[in-house]
Amino acid sequence: MGTMLLWPAAAVLGFLLCTAVVVALGASSTARYEHARAAAGQQAQRAAARASGTHPAGRRAAAAPAGGGDGPRRPQAVAVAVRPAEAPARPVVAAPGTAHAWWLVDEGAQVLAGPFDDRIDADWAALSGGLAAVSVYGAPRADGSVAPRPSPADRAWLAELGDQLDRLPEDWDALLTDTDPLTTLVVEVAAALVEAGLPLHDAAGAGTSGGVCLVPETASCGVLVSWRTHDRMGVQLSRGDAALEAVQELMDAALADTLAELGFVVQTFGASGVPLVTAVR
Questions:
Q1: Contact residues for 66 (Cβ-Cβ < 8 A; gap 6+)
Q2: Is there a contact between 201 and 230 (Cβ–Cβ < 8 Å)?
Q3: pLDDT tens sequence across 14-32
Q4: Contacts 24+ apart (CB under 8 A), 237-240
Q5: Which residues partner with 269 through β-bridges?
Q6: With contact defined as beta carbons under 8 Å apart, do 101 and 115 qualify?
Q7: What is the pLDDT of residue 258?
Q8: Measured CA distances, 8 to 4, 12, 15, 125, 158 (Å)
Q9: DSSP calls for the chain
Q10: Of the candidates 216, 107, 105, which has an alpha carbon nearest to the alpha carbon of residue 169?
Q11: How far is the C-alpha of 65 from the C-alpha of 235, rounded, in Å?
C-alpha cells in the first residue's frame, strides 16, 4: 500500500515544481522585456532631441535672444521654397521702345507684367499670380498696350514652312498668288502635314526620299494629296509591284484620315480614290 501511494505523491510534487519553474521564468522574461522597452524608448527620445537642432528642414525652435534671456523659446515655422509670382496685381508701365519680349496683357490689351524671356515664364507668372491675362510677344506702345510681333519660334516655323513650300511641283507656279483661295488652301494643307511630321516630296529638286505630293485640281478648286514612296521602292521596284500598290493605298488612306482629323474637307477623286481636299471646316 505504501508503495502504491508513493508514486502519485511524487508525480504531484514534480508537477508543482515544474509549474513553479515556469512561473519564475515567465516573470523574469517579462521583466527583461519591460526593461528593454523602456531603454529603447529613452534612446529614441535622446536621438530625436539630438536631431531636432540639425534637421534638414531647419531648427524646430528659435535661437536664444541676443541678450541671452532665459525666456522660453518659441517654435519657428519652416519656410518652403516656392517660385514667387513675378506678375504684379496692377498694370505695369512699360517704356515704349523696349526690346521685343513676352508680356502679360489683360482683356483691354494693357500690359500687366513683363518683360519675360520666353512664353513659359510669362504663363507661369500669370498662373502663380492668379492673373486673368494672356501672353503676347511684341514691344510696348506709349498707351500701355503691346504691338504684337512674330516670336522667334514663329519666325523659325515660317522659315521651315517656306522651305517645304519650295518643294511644290511646277504646276503651282502659275497659280500661287496672294489673292487666290487655292493658294491659301495649299498653304494650310502643307502646314498641317508638316506639323503632323509628314514632309512634302521635293518635286522641284532631286529628292528621292519621297513624301507627300500636293497637286492642284483647278476644276474643283482643291488639292490632290498623295504619298510618294522612296525611289528605291517606287522607281526601282525593290519590293515588287504588289508591295508598292499596297503601300500607296495604305498611305493615301492615312493621309485622308489625318487631314480629316485636322479639320479639312476630304473627298476621293477619280477611280484611284486619291484624297482631294476642297476646304477647311
A1: none
A2: no
A3: 766 667 655 565 655 555 6
A4: none
A5: 274
A6: yes
A7: 95
A8: 8, 6, 11, 94, 110
A9: -HHHHHHHHHHHHHHHHHHHHHHHHHHHHHHHHHHHHHHHHHHHHHHHHHHTTS-TT--SBPPPPTT---SPPPB-PPP---PPP-S-SS---PPTTPPSEEEEE-TTSBEEEEEESSHHHHHHHHHHHT---EEEEEEE-TTSBEEE---HHHHHHHHHHHHHHTTS-GGGTTT--SS-HHHHHHHHHHHHHHHTT-PBP-TTTT--S-EEEEEEETTTTEEEEEEE--HHHHTS-TTHHHHHHHHHHHHHHHHHHHHHHTTEEEEEETTTTEEEEEEE-
A10: 216
A11: 88
pLDDT averaged over 10-residue windows placed end to end, the chain, 281 residues: 61 68 58 59 51 40 45 43 40 56 85 84 85 86 85 91 89 78 91 94 80 90 92 90 92 94 92 89 85
* 79-81-85 Cα angle (round to 5): 115
Question: The cell 511644290 sits on which residue?
Answer: 168
Is the alpha carbon torsion for 56, 60, 65, 69 positive or negative?
negative
Percent of the chain with pLDDT over 90: 27
Q: Tell me the one-letter amino acid at 255.
A: L
Pairing of strands 274-280, 264-269: antiparallel
